[in-house]
Amino acid sequence: EGYSPTLKWQQQQVADFSAVRQSLSKHRNYWQSQNLDSNVIMPQSEDEEGWKKFCLGERVYSGIDEQSDNENLGINYIKVGFPPLLSIVSRMSQATVTTVLEYLISWFGEKKFTPELGRWLYALLACLEKPLLPEAHSLIRQLARRCSEVRVLEENKNEELISALNLIICLVSRYFDQRDLADEP
Amino acid sequence: QNEDSDAWDDSVLIKAYDKAVASFKTA
User: Fold this and answer.
1) In the predicted model, what is the mean pLDDT of residues A65-83?
2) Are the C-beta atoms of A123 and B13 separated by less than 8 Å?
3) A41 — phi, psi (to 5°)?
4) Which of A4, A46, A149, A165 has the most Cβ atoms closer than 10 angstroms to its Cβ?
5) B21, A17: Cβ pair inside 8 Å?
6) How far is A42 from chain B (nearest CA, A)?
7) Which of B1, B2, B17 has the highest number of chain A CBs within 10 A, making it the mutation to test binding with A?
8) Angle formed by the axes of helices A7-33 and B12-22, to 10°?
9) ipTM of the shown complex
10) pLDDT digits (tens, 9 = 90+) for A2-60
11) Closest by Cα among B16, B20, B11, B12 to A164
């Protein structure tokens, strides 16, 4: 009660997501051809631990809740994770997108939801081509169900968390046509 | 116009996610 999004909000998210996907698809070649910063080393597809560290950062990966680092005022991407920049995700093949999605969903099955995880899940969903392969289909359903479980257990009305979970459930159910999982107002 | 300027921003996906998350308010 009070956590479920309105139909209007859900429709807006689907429309915005669709526009983001169109822009991504239109400019993918440009972003693929851009040089990455020398510190961005994308792991091999089969390197599960490498991808978790890459996306979530060593801090979240190791479960260290350290807020600030006084000795270094700049952003240390190794510690906080690399964000899903277009220049990074445009280089990922469909197979890699699906594989990394699987790694992160498996992580989320056991760990807390974080903003870093939310951004990557959203970005990977934006890269996932339709029609879905059977394995991607089952993966994203698993993701939406996990989001629902976490939402049910959330007692503190953490608005950012609930919103992020609602967004993922909404995109899986309404953009990727898994209507039985949708929040019905 | 907007779409074009967004296309040259490497952090479009991050901004789109953050905007979507900020748009929901619990009842």
Assistant:
1) 73
2) yes
3) -115, 105
4) A165
5) no
6) 16
7) B17
8) 170
9) 0.93
10) 899 999 999 999 999 999 999 999 999 999 999 898 889 999 999 999 999 999 999 89
11) B20
